[in-house]
Automatic annotation (TrEMBL):
InterPro entries: Peptide/Ni-bd, SBP_5, SBP_5_dom. The keyword NADP does not apply. This is Peptide/nickel transport system substrate-binding protein/oligopeptide transport system substrate-binding protein. The keyword Signal applies. It comes from Micromonospora purpureochromogenes. Residues 1-22 form the signal peptide. It comes from the Bacteria. Residues 81-455 form the Solute-binding protein family domain. Keywords: Signal. Pfam families: SBP_bac_5 (PF00496). PANTHER family: ABC TRANSPORTER SUBSTRATE-BINDING PROTEIN (PTHR30290:SF83), PERIPLASMIC BINDING COMPONENT OF ABC TRANSPORTER (PTHR30290).
Length: 534
């Protein structure tokens, strides 16, 4: 995800129990035999980027999961295991040695070496390159020297080549979960062909990325239409069971759903909210559900005066009836959320936002008026994500319970919304979705709320929160780290830079032309399991 990360579409909710069993086990698309020579068609939204260190949303990450193979992936207990890495070891949690498996090549024939990772990570960390996921290299020694308008260095001092297949990573402080981080998209390698000069990305690379994964790009990225990939025969890892994948780009989930029903699309990753009540009838056992790691929130531009007071933010939260919207709009396919961390990770606690999560319209209105909340509220969202119904329902509640004017404003694409947010253009409140990058409490906190977090679009900054995160990262074990992360989450509950609304689960469907369709916790279709049928 991988991504994990920012989710464009409404992610649909996690049962509190981690033992949730899928309604089906992938479906078999009928009794047809496998067709290894056929390609499959999977819906996505328009990616924002297709460079690994710049991709922090789920659609781009789904594509990159085809083109790249991660150093590690995660087992059923969410523990990392080696994939492209032969081993990832450390005696002190500060100096890590990464040994690569031999035999990996990029799709242009280049051998994957330690330098492939070092070059890619240096590019991602160097501030003038403006990479969305630069934050993920913050723990590596020398990162601070790569920041600012005129950085003191261009490469991370903590990265050292040992031999062609081995390199070391020295962190500024010990971090016991570093191996877990390495499954994230930002840690993919890049070939020499990706650069026109040392540290300079070649023009056009993003339109036809060269990876070292099970599939290679076919043609170029056709914006707002599709990205096609085909099986890479020289891939040394687990082979896919299909000849290729067409990632078909949709701006409306209803159109994707209609195409699945007519067998013109093979997988829709999120059933539209308006079709949830009929999906089981429409698709039969091709309607699937499985656990996910997603969290839906409404976010505040805390840097704007009208939303700078926590009292205003808490009043808005208390004016929203999460339970009613979950029932009426999502047909109980989501779970109301009153915490900042998903139930799928160790350290989750119920109702960490306390009173701010209680529906109390009278108290909310009094608090809102006393704090001088604005008379008009705008809720911005991406129009390509199936959010209109719940945004409208939320606006209606705010009108009735706070006595304000409320309007929902759709940006055409999620990428458009992210671009506006990055530029701090006024958009009012805005919906965000998060799918974890790697299984840790820290991943629900650091990227989203730390002062320099890669996905902190709200301008939130609390030095004590940053301090607790840093202390958690340095903790010698998971138990001690969780204590610090929970204390940091308690600070978020006091400040409430976002309103947790719902936890998600995967609600997806597929055509009669595929079988063994599975989705992981990171909002990705498993491309090594899916099969086409004759």
């Amino acid at each position: 995800m991988r991504v994990r990360r920012l989710a464009a579409w409404t992610a649909l909710p996690l049962a509190v129990t981690l033992g949730l069993v899928a309604c089906g086990s992938g479906g078999d698309g009928g009794s047809g035999k496998s067709d290894p020579n056929a390609a499959v068609r999977i819906e996505i939204a328009e990616p924002q980027h297709l460079v690994p260190t710049n991709t922090n949303e789920t659609s781009g990450s789904q594509v990159l999961a085809a083109l790249f193979s991660p150093l590690v992936d995660y087992d059923e207990a969410n523990k990392p295991y080696e994939v492209a890495a032969e081993s990832v070891t450390s005696s002190d949690n500060k100096v890590w040695t990464i040994k690569l498996k031999d035999g990996y090549t990029f799709h242009n024939g280049e051998k994957v070496t330690a330098e492939s990772y070092i070059d890619a990570w240096n590019y991602g960390a160097y501030a003038p390159n403006g990479q969305n996921s630069s934050y993920f290299f913050e723990k590596v020694a020398g990162y601070a020297d790569l920041q600012g308008e005129k950085p003191a260095a261009k490469t991370l001092s903590g990265l050292k080549k040992v031999d062609d297949l081995t390199f070391t990573v020295t962190l500024t402080e010990p971090y016991s979960e570093f191996k877990t981080m390495l499954g994230y998209t930002a840690f993919y390698p890049l070939p020499r062909a990706a650069f026109s000069a040392p540290g300079v990305l070649a023009e056009g690379y993003e339109q036809a990325p060269i990876g070292q994964g099970p599939f290679k790009i076919k043609g170029t990225w056709q914006h707002d239409a599709k990205v096609e990939v085909e099986k890479y025969d020289a891939f040394p890892g687990q082979k896919p069971k299909v000849a290729g994948v067409e990632f078909r780009i949709y701006q409306q989930p209803t159109a994707a759903y209609a195409d699945v029903l007519s067998d013109n699309l093979d997988v829709i990753k999120t059933i539209p909210t308006e079709s949830l009540s009929t999906a089981a009838t429409d698709l039969g056992d091709r309607f699937q559900q499985s656990p996910a790691s997603s969290l839906q929130v409404l976010s505040f531009p805390t840097f704007q005066k009208e939303f700078s007071k926590p009292e205003v933010r808490k009043a808005i939260s208390m004016a929203i009836d999460r339970d009613e919207i979950t029932k009426s709009i999502f047909k109980d396919s989501q779970q109301p959320a009153r915490s900042f961390v998903s139930p799928v990770v160790a350290g989750y606690r119920e109702n960490t936002i306390g009173a701010a999560g209680e529906f109390d319209p009278a108290k909310a209105k009094a608090m809102y008026q006393a704090a001088g909340g604005p008379s008009k509220i705008e809720l911005s969202y991406n129009g390509d994500g199936g959010h209109k119904d719940w945004i409208d329902a939320t606006c209606n509640q705010l009108k009735a319970n706070l006595g304000v004017e409320c309007v929902g404003t759709a940006e055409p694409k999620f990428a458009d919304l992210l671009t506006k947010l990055k530029a701090k253009q006024p958009v009012g409140l805005f919906r965000m979705g998060w799918v974890m990058d790697y299984p840790s409490m820290e991943n629900y906190l650091g990227p989203l709320y730390s002062t320099n977090g890669s996905s902190n679009y709200y301008g939130y900054s609390n030095p004590e929160f940053d301090k607790l995160l840093a202390e958690g990262a340095k903790a010698p074990n998971e138990e001690e780290a969780i204590k610090k992360y929970q204390a940091a989450e308690d600070l978020l509950a006091e400040d409430l830079p976002v309103i947790p609304l719902r936890f998600g689960q995967n609600n997806f469907g597929h055509s009669t032309k595929v079988k063994n369709v599975e989705m992981d916790l990171f909002d990705r279709v498993d491309l090594l399991k899916i099969e086409a049928v004759k």
